[in-house]
Amino acid sequence: MSAAMDTESTYSGYSHYSGHSKKAHRQGRDRHKSPRSKDGSRSEKSVTIQTPPAEPLLGNDASRAEEGQDDNWGETTTAITGTSEHSISQEDIARISKDLEDSVGLDCRRYLGLTVAAVLGLLVFLTPIAFILLPQILWRDDLEPCGTVCEGLFISVAFKLIILLIGTWALFFRQPKADIPRVFVFRALLLVLIFLFVFSYWLFYGVRILDSKDTNYQGIVQYAVSLVDALLFIHYLAIVLLELRQLQPMFAVKVVRSTDGESRYYSLGHLSIQRAALVVLENYYRDFTVYNPALLTASKSRAVKHMAGLKVYNVDGNNASGQSRAMIAAAARRRDSSHNELYYEEADHERRVKKRRARLVVAVEEAFTHIKRLQAEEQQKAPGEMMDPREAAQAIFPSMARALQKYLRTTRQQQYHSMESILQHLSFCITNNMTPKAFLERYLNPGPTLQYDRDRWFSKQWTLVSEEAVTSGLQDGIVFVLKCLDFSLVVNVKKIPFIKLSEEFIDPKSHKFVLRLQSETSV
């Protein structure tokens, strides 16, 4: 089922409030039937197959289906039924298979990295314990007795290992937020450093202690304590490299959405390009308004209408170039008034939005007033007969459904608000005793992407495009692009300039002055 059908079926639960006739329904179905060309080929509309690791953003098919509709599409259509023909090319199949292979490779690499880190961490924590226990197991009778100092070192090793375990859990054992295309360089360096460090300790232990069966047990325990101390220092180094190094802002990045030009600025520290891309995406879902392709259809239809009006005729085939230029010039002069059309279209759209917004505000206020009356009446009833917030929301929703549906269609937001989500939000507002203005805030002002249903906006797969290696650090002038199915984010990196502050000393005495008054006055 196409996204356009899903968009209109969202309100099918309460379409009886719209009061449309079967004739308008049949016309809407005929208008959306996919045409065929004269040669029998299928239409250009294609279907997108969603793979498990890539969930496309909602609205790409809906925007294409709405291009052929007029400005009153929300008034004449409540649901779309029928079938549409789709085609898929060999290039699309090859691209989908490539995406599947890439997703399998990412999963294998992620689990391989987690396995290596877990095995290495287990080896690190068992090594000091093995250093202490192996002499007791292999040559216990030949060991020198462990005195008070040696027994105190046992307590030191135990507490240091507990501290190291908690620190490692807090720093490394986190749920991954994303899959990055390349290895995190600093994390890989730390793993290599820990492996070399533990390997060198084992090599020294095997040559100098196991082979010679050293009897100085206190020295062996001290050797294990030195290993734990060194591991604690490596953990401190990991905190500096992985957490503290990136805190100081060094770069200012400008993020621009390619479709509508919405932009934001962020400050970043010393990060690689791939980690900077993750920070940008986290901030994008929180700060950018939700991407609505339906808002772009008006400008597209206007441009198509303008280009369709340019007609060039070839007369006699002799003076075609001169006449063509004359016709183009004449057509351009006739269309110099296109800015007036744009002005009146936008003014008419703003008028309709304000009108339907006023109707919606009045309908919601009346519904909430009715809720207050119901609450006052239910306070006099028995506790078992009181209405819960869900039932109250379902009781008052029909009174505002038509006004809300028209407003959402006029502002092209209907694909982001289902009837179930509106009822949940309404019951939430009733439960927390919120005002009508608080209820309408979600619908009157487009919110950030995270505000809407996860299935309607979330896209798991992003493609990072960069001329530089994604593991290299940010530099002044670097530009990289984050692409998803419907749009892309263009990121431009600028280094924060060096600021030089100077101090100017002001003498406190410079603010003092003397007022001299003459005793003689003129007569």
UniProtKB/TrEMBL annotation:
Superkingdom of the source species: Eukaryota
Region (Disordered): 1-86
A Pfam family matched in the record: Strabismus
Membrane topology: Multi-pass membrane protein
Transmembrane segments: 111-133, 153-172, 184-204, 224-244
Basic residues: compositionally biased ranges: 19-35
Compositional bias ranges of the Polar residues kind: 74-86
Amino acid composition bias (Basic and acidic residues), ranges on this chain: 36-45
Keywords: Cell membrane, Membrane, Transmembrane, Transmembrane helix
One of the record's GO cellular component terms: plasma membrane
Intracellular or extracellular location(s): Cell membrane
Protein family per UniProt: Belongs to the Vang family.
Protein name as catalogued: VANG1 protein
The species this protein was found in: Rhinopomastus cyanomelas (Common scimitarbill)
